[in-house]
Amino acid sequence: MNTVCDSQFPKRRTDETDEGIEVRPGMQIDRAPLKFQMDGCVKFAYPHGHDQVLLIALENRTAQRTLLQTVPDVAPDGAFLSFLPHQIYHSAQGFGVITHGDYEVVMVHHRPLHDPQPNHGMGNYLPYITPGKCPSTPRSGP
């Protein structure tokens, strides 16, 4: 779910490149619509981001529900360091996604005001989706 790579290239914003979205000095919130190409169950999602990303979230706009929300480890100057192991989403039950739902990826970036250098950032999730509905109750046992 990369809002740059999976977006429709002819329709992407003027501040989007193959390197990501332009991150200007100060706080910046970017939102991008997302449609899934299959109905399924997300049981694992690996967050990915760089260059002053402070938050990545996946929201189900149809159900008004935040499905994933990840805050990476950052340096004192706000530079992205890494996602820690506990920030990788994994669940035996998972959460469902549907093709006719409206979803949105939200990214919050902050670049120091005194940093005038052009920069491009990005944030995304690499989800693993199984076809069909999620189990209605958590599994017990092996």
Class derived from helix and strand content: mainly beta
CATH class: Mainly Beta
Rg over CA atoms = 16 Å
The end-to-end span amounts to 31 Å
> What is the helix tally?
0
Low-confidence stretches: 1-7
Query: What is the CATH topology classification name?
Result: Jelly Rolls
What's the overall average pLDDT, rounded? Answer: 83
> What is the name of the CATH architecture?
Sandwich
> Quaternary state, please?
single chain
For the record, the count of structural domains works out to: 1
Helical percentage: under 10%
In what order do the strands lie side by side in the largest sheet?
Answer: 1-2-11-4-9
β-strand amount:
over 45%
Instruction: Give the overall shape, derived from the CA principal axes.
Output: globular
Please report the total strand number as a whole number: 11
Largest sheet: 5 strands, antiparallel
Q: What's this model, at a glance?
A:
This protein has 142 residues and is mainly β.
Written description of the protein model:
The protein has no helices and eleven strands. By secondary structure, it is mostly beta strands. It starts with 15 loop residues before the first strand and ends in an 11-residue tail after the last strand. Strand 7 and strand 8 form a beta hairpin. Strands 1-2-11-4-9 form a five-stranded antiparallel beta sheet, with no helix packed on it. Strands 3-10-5-6 form a four-stranded antiparallel beta sheet, with no helix packed on it. The protein has a two-stranded antiparallel ribbon with strand order 7-8. The protein has one domain: Jelly Rolls (Sandwich).
